[in-house]
Amino acid sequence: MYAPGRERFESKNAADAERSRGERRMKDVGKDEEPDLVFFDGDCTLCQRSVLFLLRRDPEGRRFRFGSQQGETFERTVPLGARAAFAGSLVVVTPRQRVEIRSGAVVRLLHRLGGGWSVLGLLLSWVPLFLRDRTYDLVAWARNALPGSDRGKACAMIPVSLRGRFLA
Description:
Elements: H1 14-18, H2 21-29, E1 36-40, H3 45-57, E2 64-68, H4 72-77, H5 80-83, E3 91-93, E4 99-101, H6 102-113, H7 115-125, H8 129-142
Parallel strand pairs: 1-2
Antiparallel strand pairs: 1-3, 3-4
């Protein structure tokens, strides 16, 4: 059975299973040459703003491709049984088919941004997972109450030059 953030969609070898999540994350991040697939809640203003944040920091589009969790690519990429566990969460699928959700996804994205963001990701990875995920869940719960969050009423306008970085 699939365990979010701990396994891949494909089977993994015994050596990989023995490594801790932090070790695996740190070793895998720098080696990925293909972009991560970042799936976000298309009805969430905070999520849309996070995507715009990533777009500005990855102008060449080498690190990320984006898709809505309401889109066809998400349905094709993520198994049906796993989708329910991802509801309301940021989902990152790496080129190696490893999945990170919630705070693990945030840490992964920070690492992939590089520079000072990578350092922030490293610092966050040292925070116990249950604390990171509790904080993530609190923000996710409150995101609809944040100023400017009109859930489902408006979506961010993506410049034509960046639309190719979005998946159907």
